[in-house]
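Data deposition worksheet. Section B asks for the primary sequence of the deposited chain exactly as it was used as input, without tags or linkers unless they were present during the calculation. Section C holds the resulting structure in token form. Section D is free text for depositor observations; keep each observation to a single sentence. Incomplete worksheets are returned to the depositor.
Section A, Depositor: J.P.
Section B:
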Amino acid sequence: MASKKIEFKNGQFVVYPTQGVGKVVRVEEQTIGGQKISLLVIDFERNKMTLRVPLDRAELSGLRPLVSTRRMSEAIESAKGKAGVKRMIWSRRAAIYEDNINSGDVMKVAEVVRDLQRRVATDQMTFSARGLYLRALERMAQEYAVLHKLDLDEASEKIEEIIGVPKEIDLNAADEDDIEEPEEET
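Section C:
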């Protein structure tokens, strides 16, 4: 079965697996090693980076258009689910999570969000687990933001709200009842 070739257009948002969401700026011709090559020029504004991908290798590199809103909803539903089995050592799980984040597959990224999210406000995360969780959430939020015309922070908050991640508790904050008002001198 022949796969259909994906067409990329100027101004189109795309996902590059290791970088997240970028915007196709143009297609340019360059001569490399005596051969003319068509390159997709993709701008990743958030990373302040421009990437050139050979047009004939774009699909092979994992470059893809944004998912549909329906597929994004399915990914968020997946992230709501019960965390996967954690029977292997952390370094191996962390490597798998890293691979899933860099896969470019929104469902695999949702699995990382699902497995690493805090279930109650008092849950503690290790530094490395929190870093992986935030990277996975950001990757999902990048696509969600473009699909729903939100900024990245709003998209992250919306995803966490939908999947039910509790807000962090500020242990240094004082309750209003605990604040003593200064007495007036008479």
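Section D:
Residues 127-148 form the longest helix (22 residues).
Strands lie at 13-16, 20-32, 35-44, 49-54, 64-65.
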